[in-house]
Model the fold of this input.
Amino acid sequence: MSVVRFTDEAFGAKLIEAITAGLYDGNLNCLREYVQNSIDSKAKRIDVYFENKITLVIKDNGEGMDKEKLENALQFGKSEKTEKDIGWRGIGLWSGVPTCRKIVIVTKRQKNPKLRIEINADQLREKYNQPIPAIKVLSAVTGNIEELELGADESIQDSQYTMIRLEGILPNQYAIFNDKDIKDYLSRTIPVPFNIREFKLGKEISKRLLEKGVETRETVVFFENQQIFRPPYADDLFFDYLIDKEFVIKGQTIAYGWFLSSKNNRALTPPNRGIYFKKKGMTIGEETLISKLSEQTYNQWQYGEIHIINESLKENAARNNFEANNDLLDPFYKQVGEFVRSFQSMNYYQSSNVASNKIEQLKKQADIEDPKKMQNKIDRLKTRLERNRSFPAEPALNGMKKIIDNVSTKDKESLKKLEEQVEEKRKVQKNDPIKEKRDQFNEFIKTAHPSLKKHLEKTTQKGKMELNIDAMDPVKDILQQKTGLTLDTICKLSQKAYDWKTVEKGDNGPILKLSGEVYCDRNFGVMIHALHDLFVNSAKHKKGEPTFAFFESMTEEERLHIIMDFTAAQDLVLRLIEKSIPNKKT
Amino acid sequence: MKILLVEPSYYTKFPPLGLLKLASYYRSRGNQVKLVRGLHEDLGFKPDQIAITSLFTYAWKQVHETIDFYHNKFSTAKMRVGGIYASLMPSRLQSAFPFIDINIGLFEEADKYLPAYDLLEEVEEWKNWDSTILFTSRGCIRHCPYCVVPQIEGNVRRTIEDLKRYVYPGHKRIILWDNNFFASPNWKKLLNELYDINLPVDFNQGIDCRLIDDEKAGMIATLRISDIRLAFDNIDVKKSFTNAVTCFSNNGINRRKIFAYVLYNFYAEGLLEDTPEVFFERVKHIAELGCVSYPMRYEPLFALEKNCFTSPLWTADQLDMVVKARRILGFGGAFPPYIGLVNKLQKANCFEEAFSVFPLKRNNLSELMREQKAEIILSA
Done:
């Protein structure tokens, strides 16, 4: 029997790929690793920014590193950090390898020189697939630690900082490393404060987290000179009630969660959506982790954070879940799952009791919409609000029941008011002269000349209130067909025959001016002129054009009157032409 | 550390690429940098170090002024000067300014960095710059006696691969500054990369006609390229030049879009015969081929003033004739193959006849101009 001995050769370069590229599932995750290192180094402020468009810099004013610490930081899986720190596995510095050409670390610790080292990520990636021992590769791609000169505004005694530079982001990463995604990623992943100017409830939440002994490690982080805040970013999306819940297993508090529920009956939208697990302020897993636990449909009407307090519940290296080898995890996940299901029951309850948005929407429609249709809509909503749903038994949600019930009472009252309003409108409408006329007009259309009817029926109810230009097309066509004359000639002949000139603004609306000082009755005159002009240039007669101003300035009733006359005349002309002249063969 | 980078305000069409790379090099060491052009009283920046670049030797005055100015302003800052003038005449510079450090030749360590184009946004003269300048190689396989490249850059060698990584996001054009692009054994891979990048390409330093064959011309023709620049500096390359033009033309490149640099006024004992007659022969040949010639007056490597050197094989009057002819017969300093101009060159028996402007009668001249105009209209 012999003992298998391991040498340096046992760890091939492929291992480095598994750790750098394989571990951090999305490439922006390297940002989290670097920011986390900065927070662990007690940085008061962290700046993330692009330099020369494709170098990403993460700069902090933390303790910095001396030579020994820098050497240690580059070792794989051999961190000086303890579990009090956020990062504790000692891999973080290498996490940028898949994204850029070179990782440069510039660091300065108090009473120590300014140091620099670079990792040639290009070379490292090239060597992944070569059968070379990992140790050889690491030494080959890592430069020497250089000491750098200090400037006049730095002092060997006091200056401290660390700057990580991901130089030359690779072209295939440009799409991932865009400003918006980086900002979103940072805001939902790293421990940053709320923006209490936009989200006033944030103040109360921070207070409660402090009371419950939650470490949030909130740090000032800037991206491109803009401070990063964690969501949510608005108060008015939510009911003004903070739900809080302690997750306790065998008398031990595992986690503390706070939640807000949407007052609109629909799923929230990012970035104000999601329930996130946090440990020491850092997000564990993505937004989707919580949905997996509920085991049934969960509509995301809540925003919240579940902060892990218990030390033994550890995140895995990729930070996309917790380490499974823990007796607490299953019961904890079970509790969270049940809690999320209570949320879903509460959502159902809310949708059967609250309809504030829908009512607001209906109120806006009430002025323009047909009262009969309005009544239908109100009836449908009433049916919805009469559904009976039970409120979940979860004690943490008791406070929400009162809130929802209050809103529900108010909603039902305003719906009743709206209904009365609509009923009133229906009564008035029955004595409406315009409606009467319109009904007459609709009757007329049914009996109109077939080609005119075809045109008019194509237009909507609303369209019938306009002079319809296309409607003259059948007249034009039939005239040309019957006479064999060009449109131009027809125009000239008709102008000569009727001797008309222009339409002028009269005291009681537009009038037609004939040659000499002869004025004509406005309705008939305008109609004839419009007919004539439509022959000459129908394209001019569009809504909003000056030639139609006279028409648009009239009251609805006047307009309807003219349209009816006009349509009748069109109909007459069509029938006369059709009957009077035999078809000319062309 | 704070480092000020200064481009003296001499005339140039291109931003200071060396300084931009140096900026990236300094930034990579955690330093703060600022770029300026010319002399600025109010910088709002107190540098620990100052780096100044230089260009052609005849533009030395602005360099000296710049050193003086910034040394007086920041007397404690360490100052280093680099660039062409500093590399060619270091002792002249050093004796004028004993306090400066001089960088001779290429600073290889900084050469690999992506130029800090973002700094140009702060410089009035360069804020709209939108082209990526690339050296895919340094040095040259040739040792032309009139060229400074072997002296500063040495033999040819590859510098960068995977061009895509060096194209600055948002730039609209690629300018290649290779001294001799096709001398690189890598040319085929590079052309394919340029094709994939799909931006307009400018082979700015001219293409060596001796290296052109049908395959290369064909590949160049697939690029987004507005004109081809060749050099016809020496009558010995007449055959290669003609062949290159034919190759480009066969691959669909309009001959009028082929520009040929024509060196004149060069003199080196026994090395290359550059007389007015040889100049005339080259310009005529280019015109007959239907291409454009662009005369380039030779400046000695160490010239401290421009246009002062006269080769023993040329007279001042003859040099003057070229200047005038370029202005009056030419267009934008070049001689395009206008029918009138081609005829004039073909009829001429010697340099003087070809490039004379005054002996022509007024009528003839205006006739010539009319022809030119017609030509321009026809070619438009």
User: Anything to note?
Assistant: Chain B touches chain A through 21 residues (CB under 8 Å). The mean pLDDT of chain B is 90. Chain B is about 35% helix and 15% strand. The radius of gyration of chain B is 23 Å.
